[in-house]
Amino acid sequence: MGGDVRADGHRDGDGTHSHIEASGNGCGSGHPFLTNGQGTEAARRRIRPGIHTGKERVRALGSRRHGHLRAGARGPQRSLAGHRRLARNRGRRHPRRGWRGRPGRHPRLCCHCVRPHLHTHVAVSTKVQGFDGKWRSLDGRVLHALGVAASERYNTLVEQEVRNRLGVTFVDETRGRNKRSVREIAGISRELRDSFSSRRAAIEDAYETLVQEYVAKHGRTPPKTVQLSLAQRATLETREGKSAPKSLTRQRAEWRLAAVRIIGEVAVDAIGTTVRQRRQVSAQDQNLAALSIDELADRVLHTVEDSRATWRRSHVAAEAQRIARTFANVSPGVDAQQIAEAVAQAVMARVIAVTAPTLNPVPEALQRQDGASVYRVHGTERFTSERILAIEDSLIDAAGTVAGFAVDPAIFATTVETLNAASSYPLDASQVDLARRFASGGRLLEVGIGPAGTGKTTAMRAFARAVEAGGGRVLALAPTAAASTVLAEEIKVEAETAHKLVDVHRNGSPEQQESEQYRIDSSTVLLIDEAGMASTPLLADVLELAQLHGAAIRLLGDPAQLAAVESGGALRLIEQRVGASYLDQVHRFVDVEEAAASLLLRDGASSSLDFYVTADRTRGGIRQSMLEEIYVAWAADRADHRHSIMVAGTNEEVAALNARARLDLIGQGAVGKSGALLHDGNKAGLNDVIVTRQNDRKLRSNQGKDFVANGDLWTILGDEGGDLKVKSLRHGGVLTLPAEYVAAHVELGYAATINRVQGMTVDTSHILVDPQSTSREQLYVAATRGRESNRMYAVVEETLEVDAHAPDHLRTSIIDALTAVLAREGAERSATEEIQREQDAAASLSTLLPAYEDALARVYDPDQIGRMEAVVRDVLDVGIADRVVNDEAWTHLASRLAAHEARGADVRAQLAAVVRVEDTGPDSTVDSFAKIYHHRIGAPTLATGESALPTWVTPPPVGAVGDNREVRDWLHAQADLIRDRTAALVDAAAVAPEPWSAALRPQPDDASLRWAWRRDLGNVLAFRDLNQITDAESPLGAMRTGEDAYAAAAESLERLRVVEDNTATEARRRIAELGQRLSGASDAEAKVDVAKRVRQIHDRASEPAYQKDVYSAPIRPRPKI
């Protein structure tokens, strides 16, 4: 099986660790069959040290290069030198000192169900103890970022060890659609390896048996509730948990018997000889073996460029490992690891750094051992190349160049009039504008942006008819064959994939190039649909063809929707630099409010969620509950004859939903019980809906007009010995899918991943939303597929308290989860945009402030917390002091006290002055002493120069509290950068205000008032910049309880608003209402309760927003800030 490294985080009691599982190339389910007879044990002994060597070398490298410690969410990162215990495998966990025990030396030979699967487990402690005795956290960002590179390194090492020890050869083997080839040992049958996985088929078989037993006993089909129970029972009964321990000899014997049943005894006995046979080296591999390091580096760089516009060093390392394995396989005696490192080094010498340098270089005290800043995450630097930047420049230039075919404006106008006269739905203004620009714009390259449901097809139909009326021809290009076929049918033009067109004009015959389907000339307009899915190099190839033949290019898409990883963000770059035409009227939805909400959702506005919540389009709960709710809702829609789709984020979840649907349909007698085993592990029988996931132009229907395309949906008409006779749901054509294709490229079609539903229109959609992984683009695409409704099912893992307010808390959790998704942009950016973004990030407060505050508190004045705790314990009673130092707001109070101390204040006297007797009385409403003391003490009075800092930021040291002069000088320089950034933000907002600032007072003319206005606006803008808030309608985003910065920004925002806060008015109304209840209360206990609530309202109305708003639990409807 192909090599893989999988990392997961786990929490166990009070300790946390990461689990890494690695499976090496070629040795997965084939390891028991590498030799025959008595040679098996000898072969195993030769393989085992090789596996161990590979694992230990990867682990050692991880400890040495990639083991870094992290302090806090925005904290610094330090190397592991001087700390103990990075990795321990199966060690015994000490309750206070983390993971102990010796590193594992024995790889697992099987999975839990005792099928052969050679893999290695390593438990990596994320809590590391230093020689000073303190425990610190390992930075998981580095481990996850470098996971692929570590996987490929492990693969290379294991392959080299096994090849050298056993004399076998490795070959590339495809793993299906959109997957890289994996390396397998030549001579071991794929049928043998794949046969050891049949879990879902076993579930279906068990379910069918249970249904038959129920019918035999009760004489009727089981109802839906019973069907669900039977399905769950089938799942549990076929689950193969960890079996009882077996000796390796017994396991090998069982595996051999299983293999004999699959491929026969003769073939099994011959494996040992077969895998050692000398194999013919292909011409391609011979050419590879002749390349120099520089030539190999060129290949690696080209592959990386085709995959993404910017990349990390780990991407280069992974690709270098892949090419080094193939090189070493045909070059005996070569060390693949040395080749990989030399190639990676040569590639890195050719790239351009995208990550901006630090504006204020850190002193030695703020550096890791390698000299890098502790505030820069190791391994996350990004790079690009001259080729990528040149391509992006050429696309921008093309968008400003007059060239190519253009339709006379009068002809275009006549065409639109004709189309509108013949249609019940005339083109809207934006559709006409887009079609006109595409037909008559006259530029070599034009861009059109169409949000979901805005009628792109209608506009393109008008554009195509106008071009034809003017004597030209539209050749449509799409990212997939299925999409190109649909596009051709919808706008009645020739269509193909962009890759196919480029390939024909590079490698095809002259007859192909001049054929009606592929010819390009000066009257041709190339329309690239879903242009956001096209890679930057592919767009460059199409542009080269257009320039060569005098054609024009039109790009149609939406940067806010999904793009392929390799897309490179070129569409958005051209839109930003040159401009585009926009479709702005949404036609898809039955509900006009949903149409408006979808556009807000597209922009990431949290206000878009108001519609989905109030219209009851959201649900929340644990993952399994949400998957079940999705299925139940989908089944109800299907019963009502609606075209509905279930949408999930992963292939595994989609396969589970598909399996659930099929089990129900079997119980209803709607689909056949028996069927063919599919690529996703499910079965499919008569009447099942399936989806083909691989283009195959040899499989055709409709008299050869249509071929099998990735993403096409089909209904099964019959099973002919494993071959499936199917009918297209799109064009009605009938054909037969061979058994080999079915097993490798067919899945059930009741559910789909988010990426596959782009371009689809249905009646209803039901979407699983994971706030930890779903991006804004994914949510927007999934939530705009259904004409009638689109429902979101958010994974809310927390167990909710069961009380009267549980529904409100649940709704808030749903909103918080969806808000987190809207804040997560997943779109690929162009290298040009990424460079600008990195430069902006280097100057942003999200970079400057955390480093400043950490250096001030931890490095310059590391004893601050301890000193302030001593102050608190000197002034306050023991019980109150304990509550303060254990409060979530304690560090904020400590920082505020330290700021006063730095200016010569007597902090003990200041703290004593804010302590009130009534705070600890029986009628006290104070929930948090740290929070209320923090507000009462207030910020120190600052000098004029210091006042330009956000008010919650402690100014740089003015005395000699610390003893590191270099750090002090760095802090002052960093503070200057923070002041400059805040002032620049205020200046920019004054010139070009954002929508959220419409309700704010304008800048005063009076100098003193203007100074206060700029200070308050600076606080709000600094908070937005610190937290990277981009919501145009919500100034401060989601409420952040316990944050000093949020409190300061919220208070500033209130002072800036035109309308006075109505809190006091509302409080008076509620007090009057409770006063009436008090007078009418029937007993003393009720009167005491009402009176207490009156005092609470009064106290909260008189306390500042810091106590009242920031630290109260947000319950819907939440106040908009």
Automatic annotation (TrEMBL):
Alphabetized InterPro entries for the sequence: P-loop_NTPase (IPR027417), TrwC (IPR014862)
Domain TrwC relaxase: 116-259
Source species: Cryobacterium glaciale
Residue span of region Disordered: 1-103, 1098-1121
Stretches with biased composition (Basic residues): 62-71, 81-103
Biased composition (Basic and acidic residues): 1-20
Protein origin, superkingdom: Bacteria
Gene3D superfamilies: 2.30.30.940, P-loop containing nucleotide triphosphate hydrolases
Any one Pfam family match given in the protein's UniProt record, by short name: AAA_30
CDD domains from the UniProt entry: DEXSc_RecD-like (cd17933), SF1_C_RecD (cd18809)
Name assigned to this protein: TraA-like conjugal transfer protein
